[in-house]
Amino acid sequence: MERWEGKVAVVTGVSSGIGAAIAKTLVEKGLKVIGLARRIDRVEELACSLADQPGELFPISCDVTKEDNILEAFKWVVENVGPVHILINNAGLTKLTNLTDGSTEMWREVFDVNVLALCICTREAVKVMKEHDIDGHIVHLNSIAGHVVHNVPSFNVYPASKFAVTALTESLRLELVQQKSRIKVTSISPGVVRTEFLEGMSGDDKDVIRQLPYLRPEAVADAIVYVLSTDPAVQITELTIRPVGEPI
């Protein structure tokens, strides 16, 4: 990780769970971390708790469903902190609805966060990396639900949004290869992680998931450190991590 010390990493969805763990870990590794979130008070509290670490956390209020918010955030980062070397597309969402008589607005919200925001943030980060001749790294927080559809009815459009992330990761990799770019792209697909994300599930499904073995958010942050630590000539395109004993 030494080559990333002092470099800028943008992380979306930093207010809790996996995003907060990622931000904390990268700050401890000496990076300048830009934490994007709507619940900015939580990010500010996290930044204060990390004041004695070698890196620094910069909280930025950003609703990733609004393109203008994303564009303004990246502009501020470049002008005030420096060019982006790493982007972690962590923000993710599921909504309590279904496919047979569900809410169009809820479906749209999930795709806005899980797919479109990821694409917009990626585009802006790659643009900065190219302008500054940076061999950066894009990491998409995917899910095992992006590879296999499980019998969890309240997931509704969530697996489809994560299957899109799987396809977008490989599409981006091929596009960068065609452009002879050295920017890396990685999809990280965790199994069950115990976070606030479970609140977007129905009671029955939530109870089933809660009984399964689970990962701590810090385990996902460690996986990100691992992929970032690889040799510049090595690209991990997909990393699946599951808790030991997970039956699904």
Explain briefly what this protein structure is:
By secondary structure, the protein is an alpha/beta fold.
Overall morphology: globular
Q: Which series of helices and strands comes N to C?
A: EHEHEHEHEHEHHE
Number of helices: 7
**What structural class do you assign from the helix and strand content?**
alpha/beta
Give an overview in words.
- The protein is α/β, with parallel strands linked by helices and 248 residues long.
- Helix content is 42%, strand content 16%.
- It has 7 helices and 7 strands, in the order βαβαβαβαβαβααβ.
- It has helices at 17-28, 40-49, 67-80, 104-131, 158-178, 203-210, 217-228, and strands spanning 8-12, 32-37, 56-61, 84-89, 137-141, 184-190, 238-241.
- A 7-stranded parallel β-sheet has the order 3-2-1-4-5-6-7, with helices on both faces.
- The model has no long low-confidence stretch (mean pLDDT 93).
List the helices and strands and how they pair.
Blueprint (H helix, E strand, L loop, with lengths): L7 E5 L4 H12 L3 E6 L2 H10 L6 E6 L5 H14 L3 E6 L14 H28 L5 E5 L16 H21 L5 E7 L12 H8 L6 H12 L9 E4 L7
Parallel strand pairs: 1-2, 1-4, 2-3, 4-5, 5-6, 6-7
Descriptive labels:
7 strands, globular, 7 helices, alpha/beta, 248 residues
